[in-house]
């Protein structure tokens, strides 16, 4: 099939454009992007699109980079197409963010293309990845240990806000919520050899980037060394990998429906972290377990690409088998931490998020026997009152005590080393607060901040958990002291 016919078919099969679309075409000046621009320029009336040329000078090859930019500017003018030509210091970006040159160039390039699209109101960005690029990407992902998501290879069409590019969704250009943008790859079914033939037959004179021969780049070694050797073992290797990518893409889409459904049930965001219901997560199929872990990593670290199998699988085994306190390292500076009934994925340095409990952020605070006091730096208040009858309640944050047994200076404080009390129901036996909190599976992050209700220096209530035997109300109680924690009413 002729190149132009193949691209026409790809556009139709994958619904890459809508009539009336403005399309930003990323043009480097090389044969791939030059072919892309020429074909889209030829088909623009048939497809019903308008084109805008965009070129970013990465400033990596000195005068050669400048000459590429001048060539693209001249070409756009010759073909009477609007163009945006800019330059950015990719080496400086790589140093600043501790990225490889390839990763820095990719970020800079897509950020530039998205900015251009936003400025002109385009809904599509066309890039020139071809079938050989797809083969190289698949092999590179396989060698790096990618899962299904990576082994699908590049997709014909993706929404920027719901894709590997969503790290850019926080960019100021994305503040308009009703703006949708897709990245499309019309050349994905066209080989590099076909592109070179197309250029010759249409008298196109592309620029040549000598860095494509640089063996220090991993992709170049795959292209120029590994793939030619592998083709001596299987001369149909490229077609085999392409077919496999199509099958894996279908498998991935099928599984992702279950991943999204499960993720909504077993995971919830909390203060910049993702908290999983451990029992519900353990009941999932292993493929869905891995998928939900990847979804959490991607939600917290949208800029990550091609997450390897090993850290996800290691974290999955820890979440399945290990006890509270165990940890597993995840990509992007994330850590999975096991709790009693849940596990959390969050920044490794910040620790597990604090649970939504009435926590005490100061060492001690006084309370009145009757009144309302706000907990400092908290959405919670504590209300105390004296009542003449017993009130039945199942609210764990309400305690009913014998008021006559609670005479003295009333306060809330945090735990201290050596704290002991007499948990109600143990017949007056004392227990260390440390052991009690472990036995009750109080979240580790909350133990040091959980308020203790004291009369003088005696613990009368481990708030939210257990009353002290010596302060509990009985049938002989004549005055009841009710202590309740409540969230502040929102105005």
Short summary:
The protein is α+β, with helices and mostly antiparallel strands. It has helices spanning 3-13, 31-47, 63-78, 90-97, 101-120, 131-143, 148-151, 192-201, 218-233, 237-266, 278-282, 286-300, 309-321, 433-439, 444-447; strands at residues 22-26, 50-57, 83-87, 124-126, 157-159, 182-184, 267-270, 273-277, 327-330, 334-338, 342-347, 364-366, 371-374, 380-387, 398-402, 410-413, 420-421, 431-432, 452-455, 458-462, 466-467, 480-487. Helix content is 38%, strand content 20%.
Tell me about this structure:
The chain starts with a helix and ends with a strand. The chain is elongated and about 100 Å long. The protein has three domains: about 5-130 and about 185-235, HUPs (Rossmann fold); about 240-345, Uridine Diphospho-n-acetylenolpyruvylglucosamine Reductase, domain 3; about 365-485, Phenylalanyl-trna Synthetase, Chain B, domain 3 (Phenylalanyl-tRNA Synthetase, Chain B, domain 3), CATH 3.50.40. It has about 500 residues and is α+β, with helices and mostly antiparallel strands. It has helices at about 5-15, 30-45, 65-80, 90-95, 100-120, 130-145, 150, 190-200, 220-235, 235-265, 280, 285-300, 310-320, 435-440, 445; strands spanning about 20-25, 50-55, 85, 125, 155-160, 180-185, 265-270, 275, 325-330, 335-340, 340-345, 365, 370-375, 380-385, 400, 410-415, 420, 430, 450-455, 460, 465, 480-485. A six-stranded mixed sheet has the order 3-2-1-4-6-5, with helices on both faces. A five-stranded antiparallel sheet has the order 7-8-11-10-9. A five-stranded antiparallel sheet has the order 12-16-19-20-21, with no helix packed on it.
């Amino acid at each position: 099939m002729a190149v132009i016919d193949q691209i026409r078919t790809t556009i139709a099969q994958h619904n890459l454009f809508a009539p009336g679309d403005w399309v930003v075409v990323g043009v480097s000046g090389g044969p791939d992007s030059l072919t892309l621009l020429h074909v889209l320029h030829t088909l623009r009336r048939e497809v019903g699109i308008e084109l805008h040329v965009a070129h970013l000078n990465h400033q990596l090859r000195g005068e050669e980079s400048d000459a590429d930019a001048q060539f693209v500017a001249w070409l756009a003018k010759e073909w009477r197409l609007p163009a945006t030509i800019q330059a950015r210091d990719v080496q400086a970006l790589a140093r600043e963010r501790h990225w490889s040159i390839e990763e820095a160039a990719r970020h800079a390039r897509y950020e530039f293309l998205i900015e251009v699209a936003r400025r002109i109101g385009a809904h599509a960005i066309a890039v020139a990845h071809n079938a050989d690029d797809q083969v190289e990407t698949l092999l590179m992902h396989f060698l790096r240990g990618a899962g299904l998501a990576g082994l699908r290879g590049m997709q014909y069409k993706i929404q920027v806000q719901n894709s590997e590019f969503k790290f850019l969704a926080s960019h100021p250009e994305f503040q308009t919520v009703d703006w949708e943008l897709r990245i499309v790859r019309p050349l994905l079914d066209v080989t590099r050899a076909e592109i070179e033939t197309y250029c010759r037959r249409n008298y196109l004179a592309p620029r040549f980037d000598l860095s494509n021969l640089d063996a220090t780049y991993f992709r170049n070694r795959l292209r120029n060394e590994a793939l030619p050797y592998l083709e001596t073992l299987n001369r149909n290797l490229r077609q085999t990998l392409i077919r496999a990518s199509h099958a894996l893409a279908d498998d991935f889409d099928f599984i992702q429906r279950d991943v999204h459904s499960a993720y909504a049930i077993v995971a919830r965001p909390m203060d910049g972290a993702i908290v999983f219901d451990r029992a519900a997560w353990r009941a999932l199929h292993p493929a869905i377990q891995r998928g939900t872990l990847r979804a959490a990593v991607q939600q917290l670290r949208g800029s990550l690409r091609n997450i390897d199998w090993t850290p996800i699988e290691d974290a999955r085994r820890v979440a399945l088998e290990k006890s509270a306190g165990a940890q597993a390292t995840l990509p992007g500076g994330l850590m999975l931490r096991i709790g009693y009934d849940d596990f959390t994925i969050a920044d490794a340095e910040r620790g597990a998020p604090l649970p939504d409990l009435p926590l005490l952020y100061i060492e001690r605070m006084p309370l009145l026997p009757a009144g309302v006091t706000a907990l400092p730096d908290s959405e919670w208040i504590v209300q105390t009152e004296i009542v003449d009858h017993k009130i039945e309640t199942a609210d764990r944050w309400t305690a009913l005590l014998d008021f006559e047994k609670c005479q003295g200076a009333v306060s809330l404080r945090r735990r201290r080393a050596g704290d002991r009390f007499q948990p109600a129901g143990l017949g007056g036996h004392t227990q260390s607060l440390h052991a009690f909190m472990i036995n009750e599976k109080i979240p580790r992050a909350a133990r040091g901040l959980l308020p203790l209700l004291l009369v003088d220096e005696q613990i009368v209530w481990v708030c939210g958990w257990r009353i002290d035997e010596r302060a509990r109300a009985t049938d002989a109680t004549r005055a009841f002291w009710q202590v309740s924690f409540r969230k502040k009413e929102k105005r």
